[in-house]
Amino acid sequence: MDEELQLNVPLLRRRVPNLTTAAREAGLRAATVSNLCTGKIPVGRAEVRTLVALANLAGCSLDELIIRGSGVRMIETGIKALDLLAPAVRGGTIGFVARPNMGQLVLLAEFMLRMKKRGFATIFWDPNSDVPGIQHVQAQSEFTHSTIDEVYSRIADLRDEKDVLLGVDRSKVLSGELLSLRERLKEAGARPITIALVDIKCEVADEEAAYGPLDTLWRFDSDLISRNIYPAIDPIVSTSTVLEGAYLDAVHLATQQRARKLLRRYRELKALITIQGFDKISELDSQLYKRGERLEAYLGQPFYVSEPYTKKTGEWLTLYETIEDVKRILDGETDAVEPSELFFRGRLEVSY
User: Fold this and answer.
1) Which segments of the chain does DSSP mark as H helices, in order?
2) Residue percentage of the chain with pLDDT more than 70
3) How far is CA 189 from the centre of its chain?
4) What is the pLDDT of residues 164-193, one digit of tens each?
């Protein structure tokens, strides 16, 4: 839709200081360029040759010149469990809720790495802590800063040209510094800032609103941890605002709802089977349990940052690939496959 496209005016004006003169010399009407910059002419209605000429003047690509989507949109991470069940919101706030040794900093480091691959600028607001795992986050952040002024200056410098992913510890929420940073950044740049909040002291696991309002919640699950299924994101509790309203593709939303329903029933049956055994459940429930077991195994995935430890190559799946695979599991196409064959890997085999 036309209103979902914006011209990156700060980038354009910074790279082409005398924009009106330069546009005229490039054969463009000054009034047209002015109206595009002020929004009087929607970007979607501009002639392609005009946009190409502006990009050439700025020495950038059309992707850099045009910002797509001002509303709620998901960021595709290539991590199956996240993209399917609790998508990251572009420009939103993501909360990591975990107890000690659940891998929240490893997931943040992996998230940073994957967003760099997507062209994000990655910044870590260092809480000056030496907790285990923080070195992985520092290694995957392009920029690490300790003070609010350093973080602000870095974001202001980068934000015209790139989306920004900012990793922040809860201590910055409690001190009020994150709120102050948000206020200072309201006028700085055109592209959104996505904030990933962690709690390195792991004090928030039992709190309902540990970080304040969130757009995405990734709650870690101790049962998955005990069985070495990573990322150990609770598939029932973890959620995202893109699941509300018409923000997801209809096929994605339908598949997500079916998967969540199956996993919820699988967990109910697992508790029952532990007490009474398989003989006490119906044939239909037995089938649902086994499909839930396969889906849970499939949603485990090797990370790039963990390759030195797991000796498994990191996997990136597109959202389309994840949805197609999950639908096959839900529809029973993998009923003859052992869950162990689906565990800790990427795509399903074609022969399944």
Assistant:
1) 9-15, 19-25, 30-38, 48-58, 62-65, 80-85, 104-117, 134-140, 148-158, 170-174, 177-185, 222-226, 250-276, 283-298, 307-310, 319-330, 339-342
2) 93
3) 21
4) 999 999 999 999 999 999 999 886 556 789
> Each residue of 199-228: pLDDT tens digit?
999 988 887 777 888 999 999 999 999 999
Q: Residue 86 pLDDT > 50, yes or no? A: yes
Q: Are 13 and 58 in contact (CB under 8 A)?
A: no
Instruction: Calculate Rg over the CA atoms of the chain.
Output: 23
Q: Considering the chain, what is the average pLDDT of its residues?
A: 89
Cβ 59 vs Cβ 15: under 8 Å: yes
CATH number of 250-342: 1.10.1140.10
Give me the residue label for tokens 């997931």. Answer: 107
- What is the distance of C-alpha 289 from the center of its chain? 29
Q: If one looks up domain 2-68 in CATH, what number appears?
A: 1.10.260.40
86 by DSSP, 3-state: which? coil
Bond before 231 cis per omega within 30 degrees = yes
Write down the CATH number for the domain with range 93-214. 3.40.1010
What is the DSSP secondary-structure string of 274-342? HHH-GGGS-HHHHHHHHHHHHHHHHT----STTHHHH--------HHHHHHHHHHHHTTTTTTS-HHHH
Structural domain spans, the chain: 2-68, 93-214, 250-342
With vertex at residue 208, the alpha carbon angle to CA 107 and CA 137, rounded to the nearest 5 degrees, is: 20
Q: pTM of the predicted model, to two decimals?
A: 0.82
